[in-house]
């Protein structure tokens, strides 16, 4: 079966206040987090778009489109970044991943895109251990106007968006059996210095990704 074409949107516009420095530029296992993500998603995506505050901080990234949020919605969090990416995408489907997810899986992203396409859903979002992960999810570009309306009304919560569109919530048990043991690490995000230390340890574990 032909894989559905999609654009990857990497959200790298956060302030990293708890980490104290740009999380995307931290090095884990000898590789910067942003390079890990680009290397993972470039081969399977039609295009990779990065949402950033300062494009000049990423001079070595080639073949990646670097965009800043629309002036109207600057500072409006990840929802604004998703909106910017969806508007720029040339494909119907997009995969969103946060830059603080160093072990994000390209294989799982492709599967979620297919889950979104199946049943013509607006989004496919994983839920693991009772928590949804909208910053590792598949989205159709047709929801861009819906997001714009939310942001214009001052509604920035991802949960509000997820609850107001046709979303497929995907449980761990819904995925192929060989995916399931790795969801903990794939969906884990790195926010603090202790998280960074844990990431260094996980990077030495060859079974951490799928």
Automatic annotation (TrEMBL):
It comes from the Bacteria. GTP binds at residues 11-13, 23, 69, 100. It catalyses: Mo-molybdopterin + GTP + H(+) = Mo-molybdopterin guanine dinucleotide + diphosphate. Keywords: Cytoplasm, GTP-binding, Magnesium, Metal-binding, Molybdenum cofactor biosynthesis, Nucleotide-binding, Nucleotidyltransferase, Transferase. GO terms for molecular function: molybdenum cofactor guanylyltransferase activity. Its cofactor is Mg(2+). Mg(2+) binds at residue 100. It is found in: Cytoplasm. Its EC number is 2.7.7.77. SUPFAM superfamilies: Nucleotide-diphospho-sugar transferases (SSF53448). It is an enzyme of class 2 (transferase). The keyword Acyltransferase does not apply. Its main location: cytoplasm. Residues 9-163 form the MobA-like NTP transferase domain. Transfers a GMP moiety from GTP to Mo-molybdopterin (Mo-MPT) cofactor (Moco or molybdenum cofactor) to form Mo-molybdopterin guanine dinucleotide (Mo-MGD) cofactor. The N-terminal domain determines nucleotide recognition and specific binding, while the C-terminal domain determines the specific binding to the target protein. Belongs to the MobA family. This is Probable molybdenum cofactor guanylyltransferase. It comes from Bacillus chungangensis.
């Amino acid at each position: 079966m032909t894989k559905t074409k999609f654009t990857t949107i990497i959200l790298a516009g956060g302030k990293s206040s708890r980490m104290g420095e740009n999380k995307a530029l931290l090095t884990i296992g000898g590789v910067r987090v942003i390079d890990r993500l680009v290397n993972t998603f470039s081969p399977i995506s039609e295009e990779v778009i990065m949402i950033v505050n300062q494009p000049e901080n990423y001079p070595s990234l080639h073949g990646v489109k670097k965009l800043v949020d629309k002036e109207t919605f600057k500072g409006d969090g990840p929802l604004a970044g998703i909106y910017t990416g969806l508007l720029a995408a040339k494909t119907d489907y997009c995969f969103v991943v946060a830059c603080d997810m160093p072990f994000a899986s390209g294989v799982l992203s492709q599967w979620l895109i297919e889950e979104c396409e199946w049943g013509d859903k607006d989004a496919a979002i994983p839920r693991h251990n009772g928590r949804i992960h909208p910053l590792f999810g598949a989205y159709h570009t047709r929801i861009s106007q819906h997001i714009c309306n939310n942001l214009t009304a001052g509604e920035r919560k991802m949960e509000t968006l997820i609850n107001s569109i046709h979303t497929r919530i995907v449980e761990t048990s819904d995925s192929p059996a060989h995916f399931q043991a790795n969801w903990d690490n794939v969906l884990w995000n790195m926010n603090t210095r202790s998280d960074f230390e844990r990431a260094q340890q996980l990077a030495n574990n060859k079974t951490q990704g799928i």
